[in-house]
Every structure is written in structure tokens, then in C-alpha cells.
């Protein structure tokens, strides 16, 4: 029951967001479609890059495919991939804070 109440509270706050936007009837759908398209394209291109760089056997043997990909592609700069993954989690945290604050 507590979880459903929490979801209802987030849902209510989500509908308050468009009132803060200028021309929300036009800009919110554009932003939604643009973000969905960008995320889909980046996801597909990332998977294509993984499959062209790392063999399927290496993918199965790897505990982190992105790190194996970075080791092969960036050499000594392989450590940058986990840093970028850690930094990207702030976007998720920002979204959660935005809808729950």
C-alpha cells in the first residue's frame, strides 16, 4: 500500500512540471520525442560498437563488457569507461530528485 501511495505522489508531481514550462503543449511533446529518439539511437550505436569491437566469446567471458570494450579501444585509458558510467548515474538521481522534491 505504501508503494502505491508513493507512486501516486510522484505521478501528481509529474503533472505539475508542465506548468513550469513555456508553451508546454508544444515543447513537452517535442522534448519527449527527441529524448526517446536520441536514447534509442545512442543505445543501438553503442551495441553496434560493442559487437564490432568485442567478440561474442569475449562478451560472455567478461564481467563488464564496457570495460573490455574500453580496454581494446582506449588502451591505457580504459579506466575512463567506469568513470563515465559512474557520472551517468547522476542523471538518474537528478530525475528522481526532480520528481520527488
Automatic annotation (TrEMBL):
<keyword id="KW-0812">Transmembrane</keyword>
<keyword id="KW-1133">Transmembrane helix</keyword>
<dbReference type="GO" id="GO:0016020">
    <property type="term" value="C:membrane"/>
</dbReference>
<dbReference type="Pfam" id="PF13520">
    <property type="entry name" value="AA_permease_2"/>
</dbReference>
<dbReference type="GO" id="GO:0015179">
    <property type="term" value="F:L-amino acid transmembrane transporter activity"/>
</dbReference>
<feature type="transmembrane region" description="Helical">
    <location>
        <begin position="73"/>
        <end position="98"/>
    </location>
</feature>
<protein>
    <submittedName>
        <fullName>Uncharacterized protein</fullName>
    </submittedName>
</protein>
<keyword id="KW-0472">Membrane</keyword>
<dbReference type="InterPro" id="IPR050598">
    <property type="entry name" value="AminoAcid_Transporter"/>
</dbReference>
<feature type="transmembrane region" description="Helical">
    <location>
        <begin position="31"/>
        <end position="53"/>
    </location>
</feature>
<dbReference type="InterPro" id="IPR002293">
    <property type="entry name" value="AA/rel_permease1"/>
</dbReference>
Amino acid at each position: 500500500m505504501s508503494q502505491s501511495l508513493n507512486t501516486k505522489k510522484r505521478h501528481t508531481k509529474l503533472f505539475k512540471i508542465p506548468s513550469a514550462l513555456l508553451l508546454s503543449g508544444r515543447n513537452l511533446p517535442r522534448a519527449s520525442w527527441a529524448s526517446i529518439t536520441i536514447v534509442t539511437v545512442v543505445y543501438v550505436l553503442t551495441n553496434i560498437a560493442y559487437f564490432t569491437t568485442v567478440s561474442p566469446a569475449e562478451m560472455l567471458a567478461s564481467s563488464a563488457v564496457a570495460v573490455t570494450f574500453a580496454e581494446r579501444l582506449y588502451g591505457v585509458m580504459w579506466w575512463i569507461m567506469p568513470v563515465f558510467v559512474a557520472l551517468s548515474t547522476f542523471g538518474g538521481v537528478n530525475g528522481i530528485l526532480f520528481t520527488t522534491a
